[in-house]
Prior knowledge:
By secondary structure, the protein is an all-beta fold.
Amino acid sequence: QVQFVESGGGLVQPGGSLRLSCAASRSTFKDYTVDWYRQAPGKQRELVASITSNGAPYYADSVKGRFTISKDNAKNTVYLQMNSLKSEDTAVYYCKSLITSWGQGTQVTVSS
Length: 112
């Protein structure tokens, strides 16, 4: 079974940037779409971005133009570059695919 481990979260000021990483335990992850989700306190989990097996990206309207999803198959890792962060981006971020369970996530807090 493939497992994902999320990292790279932290506290950042509005307008700042962070890069999240999603490290897969096995290379088979590259054969599946990988999604980044987030869940803010008191809100439902929402899809933020996805990347297909051939590298095609998808973005939610709320992050389009600010976030970039990418992957490095050699490193078994999917990235989420987050720029121009806003307070409403504060959430726990998770990566997920069809062949993985939900992980611990990584906390992103955007605050001055």
